[in-house]
Amino acid sequence: MGREIRYAARRLAQSPSFAVASILTLSLAIGANTSIFAVVERVLLNPLPYPSSDQLIDLDHAAITSAGRSVPSGIQMSAGLYYHYMERARTLESVALYRSGEQTLTDRGEPERIRVARVTPSLASVMKVPPTAGRWFAADEGSPAPIITPVAQPVSQTAVLSYRIWMRRYGGDRSLVSRTVSLDGVPTEIVGIMPPQFAFPNAQIDIWIPEQIRRELVWDTFMHSGVARLRPGVSAADARRELSGLIADLPSVYPNDPTVRGFLHNLGLRSAARTLKDSIVGRVANALWIVLASVGVVLMIACANVANLFLVRSESRQRDVAVRRALGAARGDIARYFLAETMWLGGAGAAVGLLIAFAGVGLLVRFGPETLPRLGEVRLDWVATVFNVLIAATAAVAFGAVPLLRQSPLVQTLQQGGRTIASRRGHLVRHTLMGAQVALALVLLVASGLLVRSFQAMRNIDPAFDASSALTFRVGLPTARYPRQPAITDAHRVIADGLAAIPGVTGVAVATCIPLPEDGARFTSMMRVQGRVLPPGTLSPGVAFCAVSGRYFETMGTSIIRGQSIERDDVDRRQPVAVINQALANAYFSAGEDPIGRRVTLGPPSDTLWLEIVGIVPNTPLRALAEPSPVPQLYFPMTLSRAGQLPVGPDVGVMNYVVRSAASPTVLLSEVRGALKTVDVNLALSQVRTLQDVLDRAASQTAFTMVLLAIAAVVALFLGVVGIYGVTSYVVSQRRSEIGVRLALGAAPRDVITMIVRQGVSVAIVGVIVGLAAAFSASAILSSLLYGVSPRDPLVFATTAACLLGVALVACWLPASRASRLNPLDALRGD
Predict the structure, then answer these.
(1) b/e burial code for range 762-799 (CB count within 10 A of at least 16 → b)
(2) Using CA atoms, how far apart are residues 709 and 159, in angstroms rounded to an integer?
(3) Rounded to two decimals, what is the model's pTM?
């Protein structure tokens, strides 16, 4: 075998065009497959970086209200459910609650707005990941969590840092443990540092703070997320059944609690617990599997291409093989003869493919969307390397076996002398491979075309606000320095006035929410309409609500459909007014009912403030750019929020700013920071981006999938064209004598062109028909990734089929045109 490998290297060196074409084709396909497999393996297949991570579940909930409205997921945990599960659930080993937010970190460096997770100390027993330095929280550490009204700011607290901020801000200084820093003005002792693989609930969290959950049974405030560890041998389905049963049993456990009998019963709450891994990666799994399948199709096309090259090469060497057989070479000797070449090609393809994969993974990590979970864990590891070698070895063995399956009879081959005569069976195999390339390429072209159309439809969505020339960022006021409502709103008013005074600024608005928030945070509650009595056993639809400054809609570029906007005077005078979006008007008011002038309120039934609806605005996307149904939303003056006059409301201490300018908004950033420092040197900005960036981020995951599929489709088209051209060129070379005779007998060049093109295009048409059928059958798989376009869109199918046939026509015409210029005497003399 060693001798055959040395001889094979010499033979390949004598055929550099064949060797280079085969290696490049293989390496491109192998590299693409290895790159995407590395992403799929690290994101979908690799366990979460926690001990026995398959036992971790996300405590999500669903509901079907008695009014018939289905809420399949997204209902979080309440304090009452936390204690109910912890004390009664036999399938759960431990339970923890958490919620994410932002706080301002101030110490020896510049103030920085960081992501904070408030967690119950029990999170340690759930995740079972010890700190890399220091300790985790003790069971009695932490301040009480707010339920409806804010609790007093703690005098001091403890915290655990993430490995990321420890290295980035403090350079890995171990003396940081036991040091005190300031978080939102509260002295905070750093008691531990987590290892680099700990990224809960997401990789953006910089610090964890302990929080104690109040024992009071508050069932209608679901403000925390929950995570639990299953007992050994228990599945997520088992826990889901038990927790749903515990929820149904709540009225008998708490018979004297009116909220349990009313709200919770009417809500139809049930457990939607699922594994933590499914919760994190479930929304991207389908897209990643589709991308992996697409590059797998590219590999199949590349294999068909190289197989055709091997067929041509083996047919030209039939006499060489026949002589070896005549001299006594056994079948194993002939196998080594061909496999030696494929080993070189497969090895070279694997090596170059690994380099391509290394670069590809780096690009995917660098340019991948922020919304792709576990992106920071993606790397080219030993599993991806083994995958690279396996697909290269499989391809090499397949190519080496092709000539062995097509050996001609020994006597017939020797009688042909030095001529190479292709059999009808040989042409059939080549045409089959050529048609398969066309069909596979068409499947990828259709998939890519559907995603392009979907992306176009998504970008054509009217978000109901003007994304141009607007900068947005978030500012949080430390509760220790701004403990009460008047001080908070006054500070935001001063900041907004300072920003408005910057040259070039045409508008400034402040709000607790903006469309498509990066962290997905939104405040929701039940809304009641004054004078309306709900039927027994029914609930009002939930609404999202937002506290805003004056002229918020004018600054955002959102039009007023009817009525009027919220003006600055309304905010300053704390006028009980509200503006609703069209979705809320449709959900709460019938077609003939005018919402303008009606009075509504938020929160639990009690003597509270009623808000008069003064205007209606269009729906703006809240959760996603392509929301299946718009979210009902209510806007009111920020001076009424929570500590103002409403019993519930968002925390106006943390506000989103929108600064609109006549020029590029990014050039204002330094002046924005300066204006902020004039109010308070300890304030910091976070989530700084333009409104256009907000829109782009919302479509980034679709764009990422679209680009990857488009690249795969272009590569498939290129390989398919090369395959068509190569097969047609070989057929022309084999029929050189026939063409010469036809031309000598008076055939016109165009007749020769028509004959050759007809044969090639006929194979391409069959491939297109098969490809259309395959794409039609498989297109439904893409439906979850599409928006505004049918998975069987006739325009995409017709356009891609016509495009591929046109390219195939050109690929057949080029060698046919060359053959039509053949000199008959040269062709006959060569024969």
Answers:
(1) ebbebbbebbbebbeeebeebeebbbebebbbeebbee
(2) 44
(3) 0.83
Domain termination site, one of 647, 682, 717: 682
Q: How many other CB atoms are found less than 10 A from the CB of residue 511?
A: 22
For 165-182, b/e burial (b = at least 16 CB within 10 A) is: bbeebbeeeeebbeeebb
User: Is the same domain home to 229 and 291?
Assistant: no
What is the pLDDT, as a whole number, of residue 218? Answer: 66
Mean pLDDT over residues 377-382, rounded? 90
Q: Which of 214, 242, 272 is the last residue of a domain?
A: 272
Residues 542 and 576 in one domain: yes
- Report the distance separating Cα 76 and Cα 542, nearest Å: 14
709 assigned to some structural domain: yes
Residue 766 confidence (pLDDT) above 50: yes
Give the residue numbers spanning the domain of 576: 478-682
Going from the C-alpha of 94 to that of each of 227, 717, 800, the distances in angstroms are 9, 54, 54
pLDDT tens, position by position, 607-616: 578 899 999 9
Flag whether 512 is in a domain: yes
Asked if residue 550 is part of any domain, the answer here is yes
Same domain, 401 and 517: no
CA-CA-CA-CA torsion sign (460, 465, 468, 472) = negative
Same domain, 413 and 561: no
User: Taking a C-beta distance cutoff of 8 angstroms, is the pair 57, 316 a contact?
Assistant: no
Among all chains, which residue has been given the structure tokens 């400054």?
549
Higher pLDDT, 441 or 480: 441
Query: Which residues neighbour 34 within 8 Å (Cβ) at sequence distance 6 or greater?
Result: 353, 354, 356, 357, 360, 380, 384, 385, 387, 388, 391
Distance CA 662, CA 664 (A): 7
Q: What is the mean pLDDT of the chain?
A: 84
For residues 107 and 252, state if they share a domain.
yes
Nearest-angstrom CA–CA distance, 421 and 407: 13
Beta-carbon contacts of residue 133 (< 8 Å; ≥ 6 apart):
174, 177, 192, 193
> Under the phi-then-psi rule, with left for phi > 0, alpha for psi from -120 to 50, and beta for the rest, what region is 52?
left
- Any idea of the CA torsion for 311, 733, 28, 23, to the nearest 10 degrees? 60
Residues contacting residue 63 through CB under 8 Å, at least 6 positions apart: 70, 71, 75, 267, 268, 269, 270
606: Cβ contacts below 8 Å, ≥ 6 apart: 647
On the question of pLDDT at 434 being above 80, the answer is: yes
Number of domains in the chain: 3
Identify which has the larger pLDDT, 108 or 386: 386
CA 752 to chain centre: 52
In one letter, which amino acid is 146?
P
CA distance 160 to 169: 14
CA separation, residue 260 to residues 66, 160, 257, 264 (Å): 15, 36, 6, 5
Q: Which helix (H) or strand (E) holds 197?
A: none
Cis peptide leading into 637, omega within 30 of 0?
A: no
Contact yes or no for 85/243 (Cβ under 8 A): yes
What is the separation of C-alpha 816 from the centre of its chain, rounded to a whole number of angstroms? 46
Helix segments in 620-748, DSSP class H: 669-679, 691-698, 700-734, 736-744
